[in-house]
Amino acid sequence: MPSPELLAEAMRLLAAGAWLQAETAARAALATDPADSHATLLVGLAIAAMGEHGRAAPILTQLAAARPDADHPCLDFARLQPPLPRTMVARQFRACLRLAPADARLRLDFAAFLLDTGQLTDAERILAEGPASAASHHLMGLALAEQNRFATAVASFERAVALNPDAAPSWSNLGMVLKIESRFTEAIAAHDRAVALDPGNPRFRVNRAVALLRAGLWDRAWRDYEARLELTGTPAVDPVRLLRSLYPRETLSGRIVLALHEDGFGDTLQFLRYLPLLAERGARVVACVPPALARIMRLVPGVAEVNTDANHLPPHDFVCPMFSFPRVFGTSVDTIPPVPPAALDPALLQRWAGRLPTGGLRVGLVWAGQARPSLQGFGTLDRRRSAGLAAFAPLSDVPGLSFVSLQSGPAARQPRPPGLELFDPMPDVLDFADTAAIIAGLDVVVSVDTSVVHLAGLVGKPILLLDRYDSCWRWLSGRLDSPWYPGLTIFRQEQPGDWSGPMAQVRSSLRAMTLFHGYSSETSGMWEQAFVA
After folding, report:
1. What is the DSSP letter of 258?
2. Could you give the angle at which helices 37-49 and 19-32 cross, rounded to 10 degrees?
3. Is pLDDT at 1 greater than 70 in this prediction?
4. Residue 210 vs residues 204, 382, 464: alpha-carbon distances, Å
């Protein structure tokens, strides 16, 4: 057995990026026991880290053959800290694959690495070149879904579960893509199978809940959706104090209920409508929200106190994360409570009204969501829901419009399409109360699916929602309106990633609004052109 000190020194040098010295130390350890797999791995990793993938490949390949039940050494290389360039890792995978093209484990690990690093077409090619298996079809389904090729992904996941009917992750992913394709009965059946195979996995129950919600089967969904509280990255909630589902006319007199923001600003804005219902039952309602939502929350009827420090919660009897309120009140599509009145500060309204452009229909624009790095997979979803400012170019030639940016974050710096004049007040916005005051001075909001939609709904403004193909559950399916906001109209993608159809519908709607409000004389011009023709 090699000296523990030599192995420790090799590992220290590897972590420090001293690759040549790490190889020397690892070879010294290997000299004392040429069969030691740990020392052999350190030698191979050090050589690979120097970029000598051809010299490292035989070492890593032979070690892989000697450890058939362990991770392939290329995965160890991919996991080195600090991370190495993904191109270097990919070259090492390919060098090993040339030596062992029949190594299914290596091929699958390489494809998984490519998927994790966003190299989707490369992952698809690597999988297509190898033998078919349940695992390869599963990974292929993931690669296709990430590329918005949902219908083809369905077929891949169906092959995966046909080859391995006990693979709960494949059933769950099959359910997710079936849901996207609006095949709800089949989707729910697939999720049922995943949950039956692995009932203790909260992710599978949450996935089933989302399919039930999208199908409008909310009475079955809410209990499953509570499983999200078992996932990492969600607020820690004492299950003993979690607010139970309430009976009709049940009182909460004398009880303090803490309403807890979870992650999305839009979720809190959507569900704050439940807080007055708590107060009506006698509860003292304390809202725990980020500072950006504090001024808005203080306007909600029935909220007695607003806390902005999630690390120091005030005394309370019950806690209720915002997304749990529909479960608490047994909400169905037909029993959604109305948006509560929000009386914004008149001085704040006046201050922002004086800055907005005059003349024309004032249209607020939001073209991108906010990425949430803490949520696994949310980056992909954010890319799907974000249209980008360039997609709004067709609106630039509609007469009688004045555009106002409501976009925050890095996407606000995207270049303006030619001819699209855009007033941008957002650099001076401090919180959602400022944004709400700006919206109050507008005529309509055009937005992708993000928090501003809910804020505009709270203010009571008309909203034209640009909705992605894999629509969020809250907008249901097969309808243009929303039970959450009476003034919202939904324009959905007909093809994944294609905003041209929804944008054309928005353009037509805005043209009609300018004519109705007298901001455009386009009608006479259209009539004269038709008459001359």
Report:
1. E
2. 160
3. no
4. 10, 17, 24
CB 379 within 8 A of CB 418: no
Structure tokens, 527 = 């009539």
> Which of 206, 174, 209 has its CA nearest to residue 190?
174
Region 8-36: what's the mean pLDDT? 89
- Answer yes or no: CATH 1.25.40.10 is held by domain 63-230: yes
CA distances from 488 to 78, 218, 461, 467, 479 (A): 47, 21, 8, 12, 11
**Which residues touch 20 (CB under 8 Å, ≥6 apart)?**
46, 50
pLDDT of 444-496, one tens digit each? Answer: 999 999 999 999 999 999 999 999 999 999 999 989 999 999 999 999 999 99
Strands (E), 429-471: 444-448, 463-467
Q: What is the DSSP letter of 366?
A: E
CATH of domain 357-523: 3.40.50.2000
- C-beta of residue 335 within 8 angstroms of C-beta of residue 481: no
Q: What is the pLDDT of residues 351-368, one digit of tens each?
A: 999 999 988 899 999 999
State the span(s) of the chain assigned CATH 3.40.50.2000. Answer: 357-523
SS3 sequence of 260-311: ECCCCHHHHHHHHHHHHHHHHCCCEEEEECCHHHHHHHCCCCCEEEEECCCC
Asked whether the beta carbons of 297 and 289 are under 8 A apart, the reply is: yes
State the Cα–Cα distance between residues 108 and 114, nearest whole angstrom.
10
- The span from the CA of 171 to the CA of 186, in Å, is 11
Domain 237-343 has CATH 1.20.1260: no
CB-facing half-sphere around the CA of 403: CA atoms within 13 A: 24
* Residue-wise burial string across 418-456, b where 16 or more C-beta atoms lie within 10 A, e elsewhere: eebebeebbeebeebbbbbbbbbbbbbbbbbbbbbbbbb
Task: Decide if 294 contacts 308 (C-beta within 8 A).
Answer: yes
Of all residues in the chain, the percent with pLDDT exceeding 90 is: 81
The residues facing 364 across adjacent strands are 404, 445
CA–CA distance, 261 with 271 (Å, rounded to integer):
10
- What amino acid occupies position 39? A
Q: Where in the sequence of the chain do the CATH 1.25.40.10 domains occur?
A: 63-230
Token pair of 55 as six digits: 């010299």
